[in-house]
Known about the structure:
Layout: E1 8-10, E2 13-15, E3 22-26, E4 33-38, H1 42-59, H2 64-80, H3 82-93, H4 97-114, H5 117-120, E5 125-130, E6 133-141, E7 144-148, H6 156-159, H7 162-167, E8 171-175, H8 182-193, E9 201-203, H9 208-216, E10 220-226, H10 229-241, E11 245-249, E12 254-258, H11 264-276, E13 286-292, H12 299-307, H13 327-342, E14 346-349, E15 368-371, H14 378-381, E16 388-394, H15 397-405, E17 409-410, E18 412-416, H16 420-429, E19 434-437, E20 453-454, E21 457-458, H17 465-471, E22 473-481
Parallel strand pairs: 7-8, 7-10, 8-9, 10-11, 12-13, 12-18, 13-16, 15-16, 18-19
Antiparallel strand pairs: 1-2, 3-4, 5-6, 6-22, 11-21, 14-15, 17-20
Helix pairs in contact: 1-9, 2-4, 2-8, 3-4, 3-8, 9-10, 11-12
Amino acid sequence: MSIPHIPYIIDNEKIQSKSSTWIDVLNPATQEVVAKVPFCELSEVDAAIASAKKAYKTWRNVGQGTRMRVMLKFQQLVRENASKIAELITLEHGKTLPDAEGEVGRGLEVIEHACAIVSLQLGEYAENAASGIDVYTLIQPLGVCAGITAFNFPVMLPCFMFPLAIAAGNTFVLKPSEQDPSASLFLVELAHQAGLPPGVLNVVHGGADVANRLCEHPDIQAVSFIGSTRVGTEIYRRASNHGKRCQAMMGAKNHCVIMPDADKEVALNQLVGAAFGAAGQRCMATSVAVFVGKSQEWIDEFVEKSKLLKVNVGTDRKADLGPLVSPQAQARVRGLIKSGVEEGADLLLDGSDIVVPGYEKGNFIGPTIFKNVKADMQIYREEIFGPVLCIVCVDTIEEAVEFINANPNGNGVAIFTQNGGDARYFQNNIDVGQIGINIPIPVPVAWFSFTGSRGSKLGVLGPNGKQAVSFWTQTKSITARWTHHERSVNTTISMK
C-alpha cells in the first residue's frame, strides 16, 4: 500500500510539492508511517501568498450575506463529516475518538460564531456629531492573513483563525502542524466545498523557514500563532519587526485550587479529567493542583481515582487517554518525570513506563502525580505537555493566590469552592487571563474571546469573540460635512 503524500493547496487545487524535504507523519500508537508531508519550497509559499493577494481584490467586496452563507454551508459540511475528521485526528495525533469528536465540536462552535458576521462587522454612525458634521466608522478587512498552528488541536486551532478572518473579508494562508496535517487539510477542503472562491484559503506546509516567510512577506498583513512559548516569542518578534499585526498564544502552567469546602467528588473527578485528558497535551490542561487546608486529606483518594484511568490506543472508545504525539514527546516527558524525582518531589503515581499490550511501540505515558512540588523544580518551571500533575499544598486561599501569581504564565486557572466570597476574592486577585469557578478548564464559548495573559500571550487581542473581530479588521473613521444649496426652479412656461 502506497503512503499518501500530503499536498499543499493553492486556488482550491491540491498540488504536490517539488520539495526535496519530506517528513513522516506517524500513528503515535504504532509508529506506522501514515503519510508524508513536505517542507514547501519558499517559492511555493510565495505562490500561495500571491494567490491570496489576487483573490482579496474581489473577496473583500463580496457581500456580507454571501460570506455568511458560505460559513453556514461550511458548518453544515463539518457537522456531516465530523466522524471522518475525528478519525483523522486520532490517526495522526493519537487522542481518543471521544476527545477528537469534542475537538470537532469546539471547532464547529467557532465556525457558527463566524456565521454571525453580518452583525459582528458593524460600524458606528453619529449624525450631527458637530453642527452639520456626521462621523461614522467602517470596519474593513486587512488583506492577506496567515495562521500557524500547533499539533495538539489540528482542527480547533485552525478554526480559531481562518473562519472569522475569511468571513470578515480577508484571504488566508494556513500553515498547519507538520505532525498531524491531514485533519487540517480536510477541514480546508470542506471550506472550499462550501463555496470559497479560489485563492481565498490556501495551505502550505513546513518548518521554521516557511513560518519565517509568512512573518516577513510584505503582502501578509496579520499573523496568528498558537504553540510553544519559544516559537511564539520568535514569531511575534519577527512578524512585529516586519510591520505585521500579530497575536501569539503560547505556553502555560495552569493551576487548579481545591478549597476544603468544595464538593469533593465533583472537584476530584473534574481534576482527574483536566489533568490527564488528551494525555495532558493541551495548553489549557491543569498541570498544577493547589490543595488548600483540609482538602489535602483528599490527595490519596485523588491518586486512587487516577489509577483507574485506562490508557490505550485512541480508537478504543473506553480509553481515557491515548499516546503522546511522538517518540520525542514521550522521551521529553520521561526526562521531566526523572528530574522531578531527582529534585526531591514525592512521586505518588508513576506512568512513565506504561506499556499497552499490542501497541508496545506506542508513545504512551500513564497518569503521573508528584506531591510536595516546589516552585524552583523543573517539573514546575516548564510546561510538561503530558499527563503529569504537580501537587502543591498551602494553608489559605491567600497563599494559593500568591503562589499562582508568582508563576510567569497566565493562560488559565480554576478554583473549586462553594463559598461565593472566596470565589469573588479569587477572581479579583488572581493575575490570570481565564478563570474557572467550579470549571477546571475555563475555555470560554466561541463568542467570548480567548483571554490568556502575561507569559502565555503576546499581542493585545486574542482569538474568538469581539477581540478576534478587532484583530482581523481595521477601523476607518469618516468625518463628513455636506452642504445643501437650494436651487432656483424656473416655473415660466414657454409659449410658442
